[in-house]
Write a structure and sequence with these properties.
The structure is a homodimer. Chain A is an alpha/beta fold. Chain A folds into three domains: about 40 residues, no CATH class; about 130 residues, Response regulator (Rossmann fold, 3-Layer(aba) Sandwich); about 130 residues, Rossmann fold (3-Layer(aba) Sandwich). The first copy, chain A, is built from twelve helices and twelve strands. In chain A, the strands form two sheets. A six-stranded parallel β-sheet of chain A has the order 2-1-3-4-5-11, sandwiched between helices. In chain A, strands 7-6-8-9-10-12 form a six-stranded mixed β-sheet, sandwiched between helices. In chain A, β9, α11 and β10 form a beta-alpha-beta unit. In chain A, α5 runs parallel beside α6 and α7 packs across α8. The radius of gyration of chain A is 24 Å and the shape is elongated. The termini of chain A are far apart. Chains A and B meet through α3, α4, β2, α10 and α11 of A and α3, α4, β2, α10 and α11 of B. The first copy, chain A, binds a DNA duplex through α1 and α3. Chains A, B: Keywords: DNA-binding, Transcription, Transcription regulation. Chains A, B: This is LacI family DNA-binding transcriptional regulator. Chains A, B: One of its GO terms (molecular function) is DNA binding. Chains A, B: Pfam families: Peripla_BP_3.
DNA sequence: GTGAAAGCGCTAACAA
DNA sequence: TTGTTAGCGCTTTCAC
């Protein structure tokens, strides 16, 4: 009956009708089917957030921020994991055509032309939390990695550390590439040469440990501890690295200072608490969600590219 | 056209028809609408996992396990967060009647009669990863907290620690209540009296620090450090506590041994690495997912109640 | 093996 | 203001 639908959607009806419907709904425990509804009205009132790895605490921060904005606007947020492969990301974006949600926030680890194409062709609005080329013409919210690296390097410099090594994640990823570029620039701008650079296999804790090990095998030929500071591309790598340092009897920050990136919950949980570059993951999440909502309202707006500026959260891992 | 549907669903068709459809699909980029499909067939091929707090690493482990089982069975997993309030959990369960998914795995932090009722009345099968009364008649997979506590206490005892304190989470939660009971039993079974017990406001890192602080204010009246070991109700509390210990100049494990629970990724990431009771979160996730799939196949089966046995992961936070 | 047609549960347009 | 009806996009009879 159409009157039920009207009452439930708050459209005009007699007081008596409203009451009659409410009683029936109560009695039968009736709940409208969202699939049928969305099939009819063309909207699901659900939004999807896709992240590469739920184990990475930076996504926790982002997720919370997105959830907040989105639920305040009356949407349900569903989170899915893509894994590290770009093909799975593409599959997910393509899959949005099945009508799972009204929009998508995706934070892709790797980007290729297929992914960009799938985003451009996507049935529903997509906002990228990360860096895609401007020519892609999609809404993006990204961090300023170079600026973040500058904060890290200059902080270390101010603390008298000049022999700086760098533990990056895979450079074929979006953040990996950005960090590599940013680190090189920041070092150059300060007239420094990196003591060593290693590339971890991914952005996880165990990869950080392994990268630490590799770092030392590279340095073994050098003078008595050729480094006094390490910058890691994210907090998980930084913490893995600190474990490797400890295993070698080195004290953070006395022997080696460590700076992470993301300023995730892990940074304050680690010991010593980790000085970390806050790349604004909460704000990026918030802005991405807002962009998505705006895009859903008006699909003709010109794509926006928002850059969130970093800050440095100084903790005990640097002197 | 019905033939398209047949081809796409692998029903018998001429080779020519198959090819014709495939070409058209390719050309138009056609993707079937899952809402319309599920409206017709009555299944969404989606499953929901609801957790209280995405920031708790124990859920990461569980999520991964559920995801693996579920996707192998051809289902899509969507994750939603409920928050700590039981009313939101109830709302989520009730909301499943809207047809979001074919089943639900929920790991409730707090359980009341409303929640049990909503689960019993739920339109789709629900598996509880946690403890609900047997009379509820629902599939459950739960940990054996008492046994886990026994492992923790006996391990400490074997290491010569007898002055044991306990940092629990809120006792009005399912895990909080189970831990409290388990701790009391385990201590009693070994003829020990707890040195002190505190109840954190929730199961988070900052709550662990505060609880540590409270612990010391309780102990100040006692002999020179009245305790030599602390058991925490989960890893986040344990890590928070360790920070508080460090802030007071105490060394783990030399001065105070610490045992956590959950054996999450955080346990190995923390420093020193945390000895932790593995309550089988991965296995619980796996079993819960399997139970859900089985229940979807056959809704007449008697409810099963699976208990996963704990093990102890010994690391450096105990001597 | 294929096309036509009904219908899943809802809402928007129309008529009363 | 309310009831009737069509149709969202799909699958599944049912004839052919």
């Amino acid at each position: 009956m159409a009157s039920v639908s009207r009452v439930l959607n708050g459209l005009p009806a007699t007081e008596e009708m409203v009451e009659r419907v409410q009683r029936a709904v109560e009695q039968l425990g009736y709940v409208p089917d969202s699939r049928a509804r969305s099939l009819k009205v063309g909207r699901t009132f659900q939004l999807t957030l896709a992240v590469a790895d739920v184990g990475n605490p930076v996504y926790v921060t982002m997720m919370r921020a997105v959830e907040e904005v989105v639920s305040a606007a009356g949407y349900r947020l569903v989170v899915t994991t893509t894994g590290p492969d770009v093909v799975d990301e593409v599959a997910l974006v393509r899959g949005m055509a099945r009508g799972y949600a009204d929009g998508l926030v995706i934070s892709p680890l790797r980007v290729d032309d297929d992914l960009i194409k799938s985003i451009q062709e996507c049935e529903v609005p997509v906002v990228v939390a990360g860096n895609v080329p401007a020519r892609a013409g999609v809404d993006t919210v990204r961090a300023n990695s170079p600026k973040g690296m500058l904060l890290a390097v200059e902080h270390l410099l101010a603390k008298g550390r000049r022999r700086i090594a760098f533990v990056n994640g895979p450079v074929d990823t979006v953040p990996g590439a950005a960090r590599a570029k940013g680190f090189a620039e920041a070092m150059k701008a300060n007239g420094l040469q990196p003591v060593a650079e290693v590339e971890a296999v991914d952005f996880t804790f165990p990869a950080g440990r392994e990268a630490g090990d590799e770092l030392f095998s590279k340095l073994d030929n050098r003078a008595p501890l050729g480094l006094d500071a390490v910058i890691a591309a994210n907090d998980l790598l930084a913490v893995g690295l600190m474990h490797e340092l400890a295993a070698r009897g080195l004290v953070v920050p006395d022997d080696v200072a460590v700076v992470g990136m993301d300023d995730s919950e892990l940074a304050e949980q680690s010991f010593p608490p980790l000085t970390s570059v806050n790349l604004g993951s909460a704000e990026r999440g918030r802005r991405a969600a807002e962009l998505l909502l705006a895009r859903i309202e008006d699909d003709t707006r010109a794509p926006r590219r928002i850059v969130v500026q970093p800050t440095l959260s100084v903790r005990k891992s640097t002197p």
